Structures are given as C-alpha cells and as structure tokens.
Amino acid sequence: MKILIIEDEPKTGDYLRQGLREAGFTVDLVPNGVDGLHQAIEGDPDLVVLDVMLPGMNGWQVLQHLRSQGRQMPVLFLTARDQVEDRVKGLELGADDYLVKPFSFAELLARVRTILRRGRNGAESTTLQVADLEMDLLRRRVSRGGHRIDLTAKEFGLLELLMRRHGEVLPRSLIASQVWDMNFDSDTNVIEVAVRRLRAKVDDGYEVKLIQTVRGMGYVLEAP
After folding, report:
1. What is the band of 183 on the pLDDT scale with cuts at 50, 70, 90?
2. Has this prediction a pTM greater than 0.70?
C-alpha cells in the first residue's frame, strides 16, 4: 500500500518515511502543501499523513481541496496543534484521525493500519486467516482448526504482525519496533523467547507448522 507524507520538518519526515517503509509500505515524502496536494491528486495514495502547519498551503487547505474534488483517500493529521478546536476542525473537514506531536511511532503505525483496514468505503476487516489459523481482531480471539488459543497481549500483537505480513520474513529489528516499540538489542533474547512461546501455542500438536525461523534473517508465518 502507498502512503504519502506531507511534512515540512526534515527529521520528522525522514523518521516517518523510514519507519513506514520498514513496516512494508511504499512511501513518498513531500515538504510543502502545494506539492503535497499535487502528489495526492496525481499519485492517488491509499493514505495521506498530513501536517497542519505547512509552507505554501496549510494542511486544512490541502484537505479542503482534496475533498472538494471528490478525493476520498483517508487522511491522518499529524501536528503539534493540540487544542480541541483544532481536532474538531480537522475531523469536520473530513480527516479520518488526528495524532498530536510528539508521538509514539507504534501508536502512529497502529492508527495507520486501522485506517487502512477500513479502506475508502469505511468497511473494516475484522478477521485475519492463514491456513486454519484465524484471528478475530474485535474479540481478540485466536483459534486454529476450531480450537481456541489463549494468548497474552504481546503474543497477540506478535501473531497479528506475523499474520498481516504472512509469507514475508520479518527481521528481529522490525518485530522489536512494531510489537515492543523499542530498538533491537542483539544482547537480549526477548524476541526469541516470545516466538518460542507463541510457536508452542500455535504449532505444537499440529502436523503443519506455520511459524518458521529463517536463520540469520528473522521469522515468517506461512502455510507450506
């Protein structure tokens, strides 16, 4: 999926672009409102992450122009303006969410994924399935072959990441940043322990093993 970031602070823009690319998205970064509006119209991204205070044309104006032209791609405002009236204005103009700086990247990523699950028609997919493994995102339940699997909050988050990116080898650094919101430390085995416990719950007792270790690279969930 393609995300457009319209952000004039170089450090913030680069940080977002790198993090979202590592999370598997295609990302474009534009530093001003005029070029950002043009890119949003021409590129038709799946999501726009939009700052309010921009040179040339502010975020409010960018969103107004998009909606007036019938462009319904989701928009997430990311700004230092934290007044209630600012949030209300953004939502009334047609924004899908509003996140105030400074922010946690894990929270931003969660909001991005939630918005993208809804899609442009507002219908959100609430289940994930790989082979006979099913995850109900609303009820926070997991089952395999019809048998319920009880998971901790971190195990659920780890499995959700693996299922959303099934078939893709995920490095430990990515898992650390997305599930634990921390930088990867090669001296810690927290990820290996978590994967081992999750594998015991998901794969033990089943002939087909879904969670695989790719030596020297990371982990992947896939049906052979």
Report:
1. low
2. no
